[in-house]
Structure formats: C-alpha cells, structure tokens
Amino acid sequence: MPAAATTTVIVIGSGGREHALGWKLAQSPRVKKVYFAPGNGGTFENVDIKQNEIEKLVEFAKRQDKGDCLAVVGPEESLSLGIADAFAKEGLRLFGPKKQAAMLETSKVFAKEFMQKAGIPTAAFATFSDAQKAKDYIAGQNKPLVVKADGLAAGKGVIMCDSTQQAIEAVDKIMIAKEFGAAGGKVVIEERLVGEEASFIALCDGKTIMPLASSQDHKRVFDGDRGPNTGGMGAYSPAPVVDKALHEKIVKRVMEPVLKEMNARGTPFTGFLYAGIMVDEKTGEPYVLEFNTRMGDPECQPIMMRMKSDLYEYIDAAVDGRLGSMPPIEWHDRTAVCVIMASRGYPGAYKKGEVIEGLGDFGPDTTVFHAGTAKDAQGRIVTNGGRVLGVTATGKDARCAIENAYSAVRKIRWGENGHYYRTDIARRARP
C-alpha cells in the first residue's frame, strides 16, 4: 500500500535544477509546501541552510510534520557527504543515493572500473595517481584523448585534448597546479569518442528503472561547441538522436546493469541515475561518457517543462520501493529548450551583485528558472553565480521552442555587457 500523503517537500540545493524540481513538485495536489535549502533569488520559502550542512538539514526535516516529509537532493556535493545515509539513520525520507552508490559520480576512477566490471560500454581508459606516469602513458598514445579529474569539479574537470601536448598540459593543470583542488588527486585518461551526445536520466528505486524524457546538454562555453567545459550552457528535450531502438539499448546495456551491479555490491541505487551517452558516429552504438547520481542541470529544466505526470507521485513511489507498480510517465508532445544566461567570464572569473533587469511574465510557454541569483537589501534580484538564469520555453517543435526561449533571453540583461549566452542551443534538433 502507498505511504500516507507527504505534504512537505524540502528541495536541497540552490541552482536552476532545484528551482525546476521545486516548481514541478509544488504543482502536485499532494504537496502542501515546498522549502528550498538554501534556494536562490527566484525560489520561494527559502531556508538558510547550505547544501553541505547535513546535520542542520536533518534537524530541519525532523521539525516538519513530525518528520513526515520528503527531501529531494539536487547537487552532487550533498550526496558525496552522505546526506542519504544521515537521513536514513534518523528514519527520514529522502530521494537520492547513499554515499557508496553516489561514488558512481563522485569518483571517475570508481565509475570506469565499475563499468568495466558490469560490462557497460565505455571508452578505453587508464587511471593514474602519479602525474609523470600519466604523462608517460600519454606520450605512447597516438589518438585524441580526454583527461578527467577523478573527483567533483562542478562539471569543469573534463578536458578534451586534440594533441599529445594538450593532454600533458591537462595533467599538469589537474595534478600539478591543482586547479580543481582535491578532485585532481587522480586522473582518468580515456580515448576520445566521436559522435553525438545525449543525456539519459531515470528514476530508480533499487529495483526498477523509470526513464525520463531524453535530452541533450551543451557543455562547452562557446557557440559551435568550442571553449572549455562548463556546468552546462543549455539543453533541450526530447533529443531526436535517442530513437526507440537506442532508448531500449541504453536501458538494457547501461541502466539495468548499473542496478544489478549495485545490488550485487550491497549498495542498492535509489535516486536519479544520469548516463551521459555518446552515440558513436559510425556504428550508432551507445557508450557511457560519465554517470551522475542526481538530476542533470540544465537538462532538468526542459524535462520538467514537458512532464505531464505528477513528479511527486513518482518520487514518493521510488522512495518506498514501489516504482515498478507505477505507469510510464506521460509527456507533453512539445519540445522544450533551456538557454543558460551566464555572467560574462564564466567558467572563469566574473562579477557578482549586478541587478538583473527585464525579468517578467513571458507567457505560459516560457519559465525563467533562477540559478546564480540572490536578493539584495532592496529586494532586487542580483547576480550571484556563473550560471545565472535558465530561460526555458516550449513550442510545437524545436524551431518554435528556440524562438520562444531566445525571445525572452533578449529582454533580460544585467550590468554593462555583463551577461553571455550561446546562440546555438538546440540547433541540432531544429527541423
């Protein structure tokens, strides 16, 4: 039997993903209130508890409806610190994997070795904890490589290299200069795959996979997929590259083996499972670039805009281990596009505290999800991060969704030439 209705939800995190999750969860008739901890300038009912203050989050959850509430984790940092373990210890309900299972994202070395053991298709790789040995290995390779920091680096610890020299410089950047801090204690060096990327995200309850709509992210900072990697400069859903046949391959060859191997290790996976997929340009076969153990950002924004079903009902079922009894999720037959408006300089240095102008009601097809924003002493919305806004719009097809999103983007501004956005989001999906 389903658990009694949960009326209070705590969304943990402060980005656009968290805003979109809370926005969707608040639409459920079973949800009375949504708190954001800590939230941002655009979210409602913010709680002054940071995402890494695990004990405070536990205590706050205990005070809600005598502990009868549901926490939904957005960022990987909270999962890496064991928030799911801490909530479980107190008998509190939370959607997200425990620390050991979250290593699928928090350690790229763990993830690659996990995929190898589970027979999940991925690029050939080698791992190193010694910088010189890593560089010696690179010198013996005669193909494009990708160098990855082992730990969490906010989506920026993956460096695509076109030459041996670039790969050696990447090792120096990660392991010697420590530009990503402790995340660079080890590196993964892997073959650079060529093809089209897609994001495949599913709800999991340890036994059952419930796929969400397909999506595609744009990681590089500049148009034409140039420049350094970021946390994501935009996304759209659905991704045409993921047809029915490819969808089934990803479920059977990637997602289900993850649950099987996690269960074999005694660490069942409950939460959002995200596979970054490369569809090989020659064979059309899917290979896993990376796993995330939480909802993608900015993929979350267009996915939530298209979701017709009640998200709360599915998360509630997953937490209780009854996802297998739920019908497939229903989706609006529309395309959704999210354009990230970032502070100029991101992913490097950028200004904060600039007043954002042009925010308003853009109509039913467009929602502006806040990420790096805050409210100043006068109550004005100001910039407070690199990725500031996720302007998300739907349309009858990709062309209409793109036009709706960019129409809103052009009305928003801050500072003197203070913002930046890519102008080619979702072009691959355009008819």
Overall 3D form: globular
Q: How would a crystallographer describe the biggest sheet?
A: 6 strands, antiparallel
Give the beta-strand count: 24
Given helix and strand content, the structural type is alpha+beta
Low confidence ranges: none
**Overall pLDDT metric:** 94
**Alpha carbon gyration radius:** 21 Å
Which architecture of the largest domain does the CATH hierarchy give at level 2? 2-Layer Sandwich
> Percent range for helical residues?
25-40%
CATH superfamily of the largest domain: ATP-grasp fold, B domain
CATH T-level fold name of the largest domain: D-amino Acid Aminotransferase, Chain A, domain 1
How far is the first residue's CA from the last residue's CA?
A: 46 Å
DSSP strand (E) fraction? 25-35%
Compute the number of helices.
Answer: 12
Q: What is the level 1 CATH name of the largest domain?
A: Alpha Beta
Count structural domains.
Answer: 4
Features:
Rossmann fold, 4 domains, six-stranded antiparallel sheet, D-amino Acid Aminotransferase, Chain A, domain 1, alpha+beta, Dna Ligase, domain 1, PRibGlycinamide_synth, four-stranded parallel sheet, globular, 431 residues, 28% helix, ATP binding, nucleotide-binding
What does this structure look like?
The chain has 431 residues and is an alpha+beta fold. The chain has four domains: 7-99, Rossmann fold, CATH 3.40.50; 124-191, ATP-grasp fold, A domain (Dna Ligase, domain 1), CATH 3.30.1490.20; 194-325, ATP-grasp fold, B domain (D-amino Acid Aminotransferase, Chain A, domain 1, 2-Layer Sandwich), CATH 3.30.470.20; 335-421, Alpha-Beta Complex (Glycinamide Ribonucleotide Synthetase, Chain A, domain 4). It is 28% helix and 27% strand. The strands form seven sheets. Strands 11, 14, 17, 19, 22 and 24 form a six-stranded antiparallel β-sheet that branches. Strand 6 (145-149) and strand 7 form a beta hairpin. Helix 5 (99-106) crosses helix 6 (108-118) and helix 7 packs antiparallel against helix 8 (164-176). The chain is globular, with a radius of gyration of 21 Å.
